Amino acid sequence: LDGNVTEWNHYMCMLTGRNQDAAVGSKFSDFVSAGSGTAVREGLKNVGDGHFGLPFEVQFKAQGGAAPGPTVLLSLTPQLDEKGQAIGALCIGQLEVRTAPPKVPEKKTPTSSANADGESNSRKTKGMVMHELRSPLHGIIGLATTLSQDDSPLQKPLKMIASSGERVLELVTNLMDYWNLAEDSNPDLAEDPLDFHALVNESMARCEQARDKRGKPMKKDKVNIIKDIPANLPTIYGDPQAIIQLLYHLIMNALKFTHQGQVSISIVPNARTKCMDIIVEDTGIGISKGSINRVFEAFQQEDTSESRRYE
Fold first, then answer.
1. Element housing 238 (H / E)
2. Percent of the chain, pLDDT > 70?
3. Residue range 28-77, pLDDT digits in tens
4. Which residues of 144-172 are buried (b: 16+ CB within 10 A; e: fewer)?
5. Cα–Cα dist 262/100, whole Å
6. Is the terminal CB of the chain with fewer CB neighbours within 10 Å at N or C?
C-alpha cells in the first residue's frame, strides 16, 4: 500500500486526460490537490488496517493547470491476498455534479414558493436516482476490470461487462447533465479567466484516450486532431469545466463519424459579440442538407433506421 497506481482504466484517462502509461507506477496523490492527497493517504491507511472507511471527496488536478479538475466521491475497498492481508485498494469513484452557490433569498408569492419547492424536490429526487444508479455501476466496473486482468477464459466476458458498465455510466451522467440544463435555462456557472490553449489540450487528451462500446479507440489511426488557436487571445471569463465538457462532446462526435483525414478545433475572437467562437470541423461523412435542421432537435439523428451504422 505505497500509494502507487497499478491500474488505470480508460474512463480515468478520459476524466483526467492522462493515459495509462503516464499514470501506472506514479503516486495517486500526485494527480490530486494537496488537501485531497492527505485524504487519500488516510484512506489507504484505513485499508491497510482492514477497514473500508467512508467515501470522501477527491479533487483532481487539471492537466495543464487551466482550472481545478473534476471532483470525485471516492471509496476504497481492500484487495486481499490468499492469507487475507490487504495488498492494495480498489478505488471506486463517482463524479460529483457541481451545485450552484446559494442565492440571496427573494420575497416570493405562495404560488412561486410552491413551484420553487417542487422544482427543488424534483432535482433532489433525480440526483438521488442518479446516485443510486451510479454507485453500483462503479462497483461493477471496478470489480470486472480488476478480475479481467487475470489470464483466464473469463477475461473477455469480464472486459465486456466492464465496457458495458462504462457505457451505461456515461449515459446516466449525460442524462444528469441534460436534466440540469433542461430545468435551469440560466444556470449559475463559474466566472474564471479562460485559457483556451489549456482547455483545448485537456479536451483533446481526453478524446484521444476515449474508447467506443467495443473497447476500440474513438480516434482512428488515419485521423489527426489539430488545433488552430491564436497565441494572444483576449481574456474572457467563463466556466472552464463547462467549456471542457462542451469541447469533449463536439470533438467526440466529430471523431465518431470521421474515418480518415482530420478533426480541427479553432478558437476565433468575435469582435461583434465580444465572445469566442469555438469551431470544430471534420472530414467525416457529413450531414445531408435535408437533415441539418432535424439533427439539432432533441433525441434526433440523421439515420433513424434499424440498420443504421452509427448510434
1. strand 237-238
2. 78
3. 888 888 888 888 888 888 888 877 667 788 888 876 655 577 888 787 87
4. bbbebeeeeeeeeebbebbbebbeebeeb
5. 37
6. C
Biggest CA–CA distance in the chain, Å, is 69
The CA distance from 174 to 168, in Å, is 10
Picking from 170, 144, 141, the residue whose alpha carbon sits closest to that of residue 157 is 144
pTM score of the predicted model: 0.57
- In angstroms, the CA 294 to CA 296 distance is 5
Helix (H, G, I), strand (E, B) or coil at 36: helix
How many Cα atoms sit within 13 Å of 254 on the Cβ side? 24
Alpha helices in 89-232 (DSSP H): 110-147, 155-183, 196-209
- 66-77: pLDDT as tens digits: 557 788 878 787
Q: Is 163 helix (H, G, I), strand (E, B) or coil?
A: helix
Which residues have a Cβ under 8 Å from the Cβ of 234 and sit 6 or more positions away? Answer: 269
Q: Nine-digit cell at 115?
A: 413551484
Does position 91 have pLDDT exceeding 50, yes or no? yes
Name the phi and psi angles at 263, rounded to 5: -120, 125
More confident residue, 212 or 115: 212
Q: Is the dihedral of CA 48, 49, 54, 57 positive or negative?
A: negative
What's the rounded Cα separation, in Å, for the pair 92 and 44? Answer: 13
DSSP state of 217: B
* Sequence-separated (6 or more) residues with CB below 8 Å from residue 213: 163, 164, 167
Q: What is the DSSP string of 48-107?
A: HTT-----EEEEEEPTTSSSEEEEEEEEEEEEE-TTS-EEEEEEEEEEPPP-PPPPPP--
* Phi and psi, residue 66, nearest 5°: -65, -35
> In the structure grid, which three cell numbers stand for residue 287, read together?
450531414
Average pLDDT of 82-96? 73
What are the b/e assignments for 104-122, b being 16+ CB within 10 Å?
Answer: eeeeeeeeeeeeeeeeeee
